Structures are given as structure tokens and as C-alpha cells.
Amino acid sequence: GVVAMVYALQHDDQITESGMRNDPISITRGIEFSLNDYRESGKAIGAIRAGHLTLMLTAGIDPSKVRTMYMAGASGTYVDPVKAKEVGLIVPYCTLAKQVGNTSLELAKDLAFDPDYLEELNSMRDKLLTDHTMFVSSDIFRDLYTYEYGYWAEGMPLSRYRRALERYGVDGYLDQKEPPRVDRLYERDIREIGESLSALDISPVMTASWSCSRCGKCIKECPEKALSMDDGTFSIRTGYCLGTACQRCQEICPLHSYDYSAYRLS
Ligand code: SF4
Ligand code: SF4
Q1: For the residues 1-9, what does the mean pLDDT come to?
Q2: How confident is the model at residue 243 (pLDDT cuts 50, 70, 90)?
Q3: Which atom of ligand 2 has the smallest separation from the CA of 224?
Q4: Average pLDDT over residues 24-28
Q5: Which domains does the chain have, with CATH numbers?
Q6: How many angstroms separate the CA atoms of 228 and 251, rounded?
Q7: Does 6 contact ligand 2 (Cβ within 6 A)?
Q8: Nearest ligand by distance to the CA of 208
């Protein structure tokens, strides 16, 4: 949601040299996004962009040759790669963004099936450590992040950052706007785990009721299939629900009847 918000603010020309046109912006009931939120988000986005550049420059990789980005974790499922690229979260020359889902869970599953795989992973880890780049001691990262910080938090013009990148031989990095093709491998955080295993459903259920048309749009919208309705009573399996980070069920309700805060343990 934060990536989408930063993208929307930039696209809507809400961010000006002196601040934000409407500060704060009301997103939904009780949730606002302020200039301070934008700046704090930008510091995090800037750290990732400076990190990508540091890794490529340290490894001698030409950024313009990086055409595929792999996105994992929350970014591997829920973040929109087109918006992520636009705000600077992924390498701007990439033409293909592959969203590979929750790799931590996938790895846990692989290890459950094949415990000997741990040895192979450990040898991979040892190899990684020998070529490790520490941002904290990297002069490139310190230099680039200073510009990121200036841009996001202090209103520094992007032109100064462009000139700094030219000194590193990186031209046009901040100006690539073509949206990438997206290859999203999984629709949900936890995909099917095979026929030989089954997932125990031990999560508590919360229920709520309200008067509405019972159109079912909220249920269809739920990406985790956590929501159901029976005879006017809505139930959420809390172990599957993404909570306040999501709330798509509430947003989609055409009558504004849906009330996420009404849920109580049943
Ligand atoms: S809460 Fe809204 S979206 Fe859900 S069934 Fe009722 S009217 Fe439809
Ligand atoms: S917040 Fe709503 S849409 Fe999102 S996972 Fe939970 S029940 Fe589903």
C-alpha cells in the first residue's frame, strides 16, 4: 500500500518543492498519509535504490544490462512491480519483473521435504559471505544514500543526483519509465503444498454482522480466501487474514457497509 501511495502522489503531482499539496491525504476511515509519511517511505525506497546501485557498481555490473528483477517476500506477492519500478524500488532498466512469492516459506517447505538440502545451503552461504558487500562500510553506498536522503527528505532536485550518478558512469538511471512485463508466479503467500501434506487450520475465527446487500464482493476480493459469509454473519480466519495491511474486503464494499473493526472472536 505504501508503494502504491508514493506512486500515486508522484503521478498526481501532489509533491511540490515546498511540500505536499494536500497534507495529509485521507485514504480511508481513520487512515491518513502525510508529507512526513512520504518522506519516511522515501528514505526506505532510497536505501533500496542506493543498495541496488552499490551492489552493481561494486560487482562491475552495467545497470543497463540488468533486464530481469526477481521480487521475493511481500514484494514477491503483493507489491505492484510497475509502481515499484516507477518509484525506484527495482532496477529501472528491467523489462521483466518476476514475482517469486514468499521464498522463506518455500525454503522451509523444501527443507521439510529434504533435510539434507541444508548442507548445500550452508556451502552457498559460505560462498556468499566471501563476496559480501557491507553497505555500512561502503563509500559508494554512503555517497549515493546521501543524495537519496537529500532528494526524499530535504527536497533536493533530482538533477543533482543525476550528476552524481554520471560521475559513476551511470547515465539515465533515474529516467527509465517503461513499465516492465510482470510474471507473477503465485497468487497467494502460501501456495498449495502438495497432496501428501495438509495444512492444519488452527487459527481463531472472528465474526461480525451488519446490514448489507450480501453481494459477496468482499469475499471474492479477499486474496487469502480468509473471509466467508453464512446467513448474514461474516467470518474471518485470522491465521490467513493479512489484517490492516490489506483491508481489501472493506475497500471494495460498494455500500460502505463493511466494517473491519466490528469483528470479535466468536
Ligand atoms: S459487506 Fe459490502 S461487499 Fe460485502 S456482501 Fe455486504 S454489501 Fe457486499
Ligand atoms: S483484510 Fe479482508 S481481504 Fe484482506 S486478507 Fe483479511 S479478510 Fe481478506
Answers
A1: 87
A2: confident
A3: 5
A4: 80
A5: 2-184 (no CATH), 205-265 (3.30.70.20)
A6: 16
A7: no
A8: 1
Q: Which residues of 204-240 are buried (b: 16+ CB within 10 A; e: fewer)?
A: eebbbeeebeeeeebbebbebebbeeeeeebbbbeeb
Q: Is the pLDDT of residue 129 over 80?
A: no
Three cell numbers, residue 3: 508503494
In whole angstroms, give the CA distance from residue 79 to residue 83: 8
Provide the ipTM. 0.96
Q: Please tell me if the CB atom of residue 227 comes closer than 6 angstroms to any atom of ligand 2.
A: yes
Average pLDDT over the chain, rounded to an integer:
89
Residue that is written with C-alpha cell 485470522 in the block: 238
